[in-house]
């Protein structure tokens, strides 16, 4: 339905009034009536306040509205579910056999040396072992194993003037040459408490952890691979007893860098 604008209605009313000879003032009530539509339709304001008839919710909506929701504090627990799933899968994967290499075993053995040599090998009652010093004394790990096994007193008893490299940078080390202090023997037949495998392990820890030799360097790579790496066959053989300090040179003579006999009595060391 098209609505006729009010001003047109008023105008036509006025014209009709003029034509019928009525006073023009009669037009004003029509204008007033249209200006106050609220008065003309008193029922209008009551319409919005009338309650609309509400259709009852279907059963499934009622069920959805009334069932218990997940409490908010459960959200933190739920958010950890993916992590749990990950850990579950991780726990299911078979565990790799833990490879305890000589260095990590040696770090534990070193607890019996640190009282004299210092926690970082910085020295004390015992010789300085850090910053490459021990590598200068023993360019061959076999000579270090021999010295640690027998201790400095054995060198004195055997009448040996030096231990380690006789051409050591800074001068060869003499038994009891470090303030006259004694390096106690560590090997079992010399009166010590360490096995040969433990002596190798602690030597590996001193050389590659405390003294800082680089296992990847050209100078130390073959020594590291043969004696100190987690895959070291020599270390395994000493642990199992299939080789010992007295026959190691024969048992492992197939190695690229043939081992020198370590021995369990004091002997002179070799130079670089
Ligand atoms: C009671 C103190 C003491 C203890 C414990 C001790 N040492 Fe020593 N160590 C010495 C002394 C002193 C020297 C110097 C020996 C000498 O001059 O004859 C020395 C020297 C050494 C050297 C030679 C270093 C060099 O460059 O001349 C090595 C290697 C060594 N000790 C390893 C060890 C290891 C490995 C242990 C533990 C298993 C250990 N020591 C435990 C006192 C000790």
Describe the structure in your own words.
This protein is mainly alpha-helical and 272 residues long. α1 packs antiparallel against α2 and α11 crosses α12. It has a domain of 150 residues: Cytochrome Bc1 Complex, Chain D, domain 2 (Orthogonal Bundle). Helix content is 47%, strand content 0%. The chain is built from 15 helices and no strands. The protein is rod-shaped. It binds heme C. Heme C binds next to α9, α10 and α11.
Which key phrases capture this entry?
272 residues; mainly alpha; Cytochrome Bc1 Complex, Chain D, domain 2; 47% helix; rod-shaped; binds heme C
Secondary structure: elements and pairs:
Elements: H1 6-20, H2 27-35, H3 37-40, H4 46-49, H5 59-66, H6 74-79, H7 81-92, H8 102-109, H9 114-117, H10 133-137, H11 141-157, H12 196-210, H13 221-228, H14 233-240, H15 248-251
Helix pairs in contact: 1-2, 8-12, 11-12, 12-14
Bound molecules: heme C (HEC).
């Amino acid at each position: 339905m098209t609505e006729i604008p009010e001003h047109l209605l008023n105008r036509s009313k006025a014209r009709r009034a003029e034509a019928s000879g009525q006073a023009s003032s009669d037009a004003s009530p029509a204008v007033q009536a249209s200006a106050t539509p609220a008065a003309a339709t008193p029922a209008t304001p009551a319409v919005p306040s009338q309650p609309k008839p509400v259709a009852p919710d279907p059963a499934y909506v009622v069920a959805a509205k009334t069932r218990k929701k997940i409490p908010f504090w459960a959200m933190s627990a739920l958010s950890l579910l993916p992590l749990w799933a990950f850990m579950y899968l991780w726990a299911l994967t078979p565990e790799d056999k833990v490879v305890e290499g000589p260095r990590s075993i040696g770090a534990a053995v070193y607890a019996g040396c640190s009282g004299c040599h210092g926690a970082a090998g910085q020295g004390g009652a015992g010789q300085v072992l850090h910053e490459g010093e021990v590598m200068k004394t023993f360019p061959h790990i076999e000579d270090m194993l021999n010295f640690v096994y027998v201790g400095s007193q054995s060198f004195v008893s055997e009448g040996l003037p030096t231990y380690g490299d006789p051409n050591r940078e800074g001068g060869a080390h003499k038994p009891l040459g470090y303030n006259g202090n004694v390096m106690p023997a560590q090997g079992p037949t010399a009166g010590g408490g360490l096995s040969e495998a433990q002596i190798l392990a602690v030597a590996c820890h001193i050389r590659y952890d405390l003294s800082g030799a680089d296992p990847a360097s050209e100078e130390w790579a073959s020594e590291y691979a043969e004696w100190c790496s987690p895959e070291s066959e020599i270390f395994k053989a000493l642990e199992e007893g299939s080789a010992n300090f007295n026959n190691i040179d024969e048992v492992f003579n197939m190695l690229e860098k043939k081992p020198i006999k370590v021995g369990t009595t004091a002997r002179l060391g070799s130079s670089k």
